[in-house]
């Protein structure tokens, strides 16, 4: 490792100070505790019946960690979905004709509508294991987070100021570099705030997502949602109070440790024509700046990401080719015609299957009545 490759290590002292030791102990303890709780995802499904949900308040810390891990796993999947789906919809006008309405339809589907046909799929990936039920719960939480984040990034990518885009082209930035050095930073303030809203919205679906049902069998995953469901079933108001208190502590914890630093970090990417007040740095960032080793490590990570975003990847070969408007409209008409044919084929196939099932059921009832 050279100092020129990672200047943060060259400018920082190598020896950690007292703040490094305190932060290191806290991080190591949190990782060990999370790893201990997460081992339950690799157990067989029978372990869920053996370790039934209990209304003991001392069990709530473990339940809170399991629920928080599911929500953050769904948040990571939502972020990956946002960076791919929303970017594709914003960059390709023809793809946007399909992707944006589909996204609008998906956000209108209730979470129970997704659970009806996805649970069997995820349970089939890992039969007889808790991991299949965990993936089904994570996907259910994902459906409450992804759509809002995707719309936020799509709107930001469509509203990048023309002068900034022209400046990036004047500096001969490639499409890859424009995306990571102009478009993503421009979208970051709105994306961070919508991520916070999506994370909060996920709490409304925790109870439904942690109860996985297949046929006549139902498994309740350990978590705050299952705890609340059992408390409501037994009409234990005290247990509901403890669950609300645990949720409050968890929300305050990740708000102070994660989202407040993200909001302060994203504030430097704001594009405003008028002067605005600076966002005060939260105590977590102030603590990080007083460390030595952690600050050097964060600088090294930033250097790696900067090199990743600075790769001169040519997403297009050669300069843009100006297309005449009549030909462009002809291409749109051909695209919409192919799309209409595909929709018609799918609709006719579904209608044929429905009519076949209806006729078959009518003949079955007629034969049963005749035999009777």
User: What would CATH call the class of the largest domain?
Assistant: Mainly Alpha
Radius of gyration: 26 Å
CATH-defined superfamily of the largest domain: MetI-like
**What name is given to the CATH topology of the largest domain?**
MetI-like fold
Low-confidence stretches: 317-325
Total number of domains? 2
How many beta-strand elements? 2
Structural class: mainly alpha
Strand-and-helix sequence, N→C? Answer: HHHHHHHHHHHEEHHHHH
Query: How is the biggest beta sheet arranged?
Result: 2 strands, antiparallel
CATH architecture of the largest domain: Orthogonal Bundle
Rough shape? flat
Distance between the amino and carboxyl termini: 85 Å
Q: Approximately what portion of the residues adopt beta-strand conformation?
A: under 5%
Mean pLDDT: 78
Given the structure, what is the number of helices?
16
What strand order characterises the main sheet?
Answer: 1-2
State the helicity in percent bands: over 70%
What does this structure look like?
- Helices cover 73% and strands 2% of the residues.
- It is mainly alpha-helical.
- The chain has two domains: 25-316, MetI-like (MetI-like fold); 329-372.
- It has a two-stranded antiparallel sheet.
- Helix 4 crosses helix 13 (237-266).
- The longest helix is centred in the last third of the chain and has 47 residues, at 325-371.
- Mean pLDDT is 78; it is low at 317-325.
